[in-house]
Amino acid sequence: MKKPLPIPTPDSRPFWNGLAERKILLKHCRQCDHLFHYPRITCPHCLSSDLEWRQSSGRGTLYTYTISRRPTHPLFADEVPQYLAVVELEEGPRVTSTLVNVPEDKIKIGMELAPVFERHEKQGATLLRFQPADAALRGAQAPAAESKPAGGSPLTPEVLAYIGRQSDKISGYPVSAEEIRRFCYATEDMNPRFLDAGSDPAGSVAPPMFLSIPFDWEVPMGDLPADGTPQQNDGLPYPPLKAKRKLFGGYQVEYFQEIRPGDVLTRQRKILDIYERSGGSGSSVFVVIEATYTNQRGEKVAVDINTIINR
User: Fold this and answer.
1) Which of 72, 103, 135 is the last residue in one of the domains?
2) Fewest Cβ atoms closer than 10 Å to its Cβ: which of 66, 74, 101, 285?
């Protein structure tokens, strides 16, 4: 069985044809001068259909990444670990790709990257990968050596004592119709109920996944930790685990009230559980964190549960 490859559509075919010619083509809006990716028939910024293709320089920087140590598909088992990346091109758009020709310990948020056009002759397809622009940073793609924990369980009494601990209550910035509109355009959710106040007698509402947006603040690139995730300064103490990395382990949410313009949400987080699991690749500690959201009237809006895997 062959590895799955992208299937060009009428809208995306010029992009894939460009890769075959070692070019990265981006959609450009003639009306608002906006460059974007992935290819669409309308501009996500102004909704104009007056579009053209423009060639990118190919230069970019690493916006964020994750390392997959288990194959994302059985046919990709020979590529593990996969360095899955979001690359911010020099012109602004971001593309999802993979990193190649780079040792794991050389991968850094913000590093300069250059395109690699990987040709698959039998399938007639070219894939876009990225490698360090600095040849001195290139090398064999191999996982960094992992330190083995000393004997004994990481779930010490000190760690387990963190179960039940809570954060401070913090309030987000007031929800506005403009912020909801921006979120809808960013996620391409054009539901009139979210965008048109006249579509609902009670006015417009926010999409369900808007829940965390009022708590997102801009963080300077230099203040981000190595994994690119901003710290949540709400006073929630995190258990002292000797782990090299944290991974996303799952998310679930239950809603009780709709979010509307003018609402001010307050969030409080709590550590629900800490437990250990062992597998073929070693031991992992799972930290389960619950967040409760209320509005300015004290009504419960939602409860979400986030699981963090510590390796």
Assistant:
1) 135
2) 74
Angle made by CA atoms 136, 139, 140, in degrees to the nearest 5: 175
32-68: pLDDT as tens digits: 999 999 999 999 999 999 999 999 999 999 999 999 8
Single-letter amino acid, residue 210: F
Measured distance CA(285)–CA(145) in Å, rounded:
19
| Beta-bridge partner residues of 166 | 270
In a domain, 3, yes or no: no
Predicted confidence band at 2 (pLDDT cuts at 50, 70, 90)? Answer: low
Note whether 265 and 276 are within 8 A (CB): no
Is-above-0.70 flag for pTM?
no
Two tokens at 303?
């409860």
- What is the rounded distance in angstroms from the CA atom of residue 109 to the CA atom of residue 96? 14
**Cross-strand partners of 68:** 82
Tens-digit pLDDT profile for residues 112-135: 999 999 998 877 889 999 999 999
Cα atoms in the 13 Å half-sphere on the side-chain side of 183: 20
Longest dimension (CA), the chain: 64
User: Which secondary structure element, helix H or strand E, spans residue 177, and what is its range?
Assistant: helix 177-187
CA dihedral 170, 175, 180, 183 (to 10 degrees): -20
